[in-house]
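Worked example

This section walks through a single chain of length 96. The input is the sequence exactly as stored; nothing has been trimmed or padded.
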Amino acid sequence: MTAYWISIYREILDEDKLAAYAELAGPALTEAGGTFVARGLPAKVYEAGEETRTVVIRFDSMEAAEAAHDSPAYQKALAALDGGVVREIRLVPGVE
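Given that input, the structure is written out below as tokens.
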């Protein structure tokens, strides 16, 4: 079953750390089978929506998404991020 990795950036504290993270994380996640579906600020928000940076990545399975997060390449990206943002990551199963 498809899974979606959703990152919601509540606050960016250090643009340089975010840039260093992105340079490493993008390749690490695509090499692990992820496909970037959406990335950036919302064009429109409704209800209690927030204008925060959001990233959505599709994986073939929940196991693949978890393995991507736990991979040495992605862990290296997290080390580069080093507290440069306040965010949450959700792994959500797709509907099939």
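What to look for: The mean pLDDT is 97.
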